[in-house]
């Protein structure tokens, strides 16, 4: 499986667990540590931890294991290093504080097609 396909699958796994504000940066030529950064957030630290665990489960289906995971116990900022891409999962407050998108602004934003499931219009009987 190509790296870009794995990146797409990782982003989809985050969406599937209701992760939000996902951005993927191509940092080839900007960084020597990886090719892509995926930056996303969960609502609270438990959500961030759940996103990280789900992502790890989904990537293992592709026979891909992280070389390192950091922050899983605290859940405010979890970093999962798959070598060719690194996933940063934040709570909203820490994401704003560290502003990785600003630090890596020389990276190119990558468009990833994601399936967000059915979208319900206002007035739909499916809305709570």
Folded structure, characterized:
By secondary structure, the chain is of the alpha+beta class. The chain has one domain: 2-Layer Sandwich (Beta Polymerase, domain 2), CATH 3.30.460. The protein contains four helices and six strands. It has helices at residues 3-16, 45-60, 92-98, 100-103, and strands at 20-26, 36-41, 68-70, 77-81, 85-90, 108-109. The chain has a six-stranded mixed beta sheet with strand order 3-4-5-2-1-6. A hairpin with a 3-residue loop joins strand 4 (77-81) and strand 5. Helix 1 crosses helix 2.
Features:
128 residues, alpha+beta, Beta Polymerase, domain 2, 6-stranded mixed sheet, 6 strands, 32% helix, disordered C terminus
Short structural description:
With 128 residues, the protein is of the alpha+beta class. The chain has four helices and six strands; from the N terminus they run αββαβββααβ. Strand 3 and strand 4 (77-81) form a beta hairpin.
Tell me the radius of gyration: 15 Å
Question: Reading side by side through the largest sheet, how are the strands ordered?
Answer: 3-4-5-2-1-6
Task: Please give the domain count.
Answer: 1
Q: What is the residue-mean pLDDT, rounded to a whole number?
A: 91
Going by CATH, the homologous superfamily would be Beta Polymerase, domain 2
Topology:
Layout: H1 3-16, E1 20-26, E2 36-41, H2 45-60, E3 68-70, E4 77-81, E5 85-90, H3 92-98, H4 100-103, E6 108-109
């Amino acid at each position: 499986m190509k790296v870009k396909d794995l990146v797409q699958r990782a982003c989809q796994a985050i969406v599937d667990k209701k992760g939000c504000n996902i951005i993927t940066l191509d940092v080839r030529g900007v960084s020597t540590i990886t090719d892509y950064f995926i930056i996303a957030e969960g609502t609270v630290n438990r959500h961030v931890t759940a996103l990280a665990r789900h992502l790890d489960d989904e990537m293992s289906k592709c026979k891909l294991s992280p070389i390192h995971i950091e922050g899983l116990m605290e859940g405010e900022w979890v970093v999962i290093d798959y070598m060719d891409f690194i996933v940063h999962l934040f709570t909203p407050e820490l994401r704003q504080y560290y502003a990785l998108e600003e630090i890596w602004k020389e990276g190119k934003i990558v468009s990833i097609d994601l399936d967000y499931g059915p979208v319900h219009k206002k007035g739909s009987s499916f809305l709570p």
